[in-house]
Amino acid sequence: MKKLFSTSVSDTALSVALFVLRVGAGSLMMIQHGFDKLQHFAQRSHKFADPFGIGSTASYSLVVFAEFFCAAFVILGLFTRLAAFPIVIAMCVALFVANKGHFFGEGELAGIYLVAFLTILFAGPGKASLDRLIGK
Question: Is the pLDDT reported for residue 3 higher than 80?
Answer without folding.
Answer: no
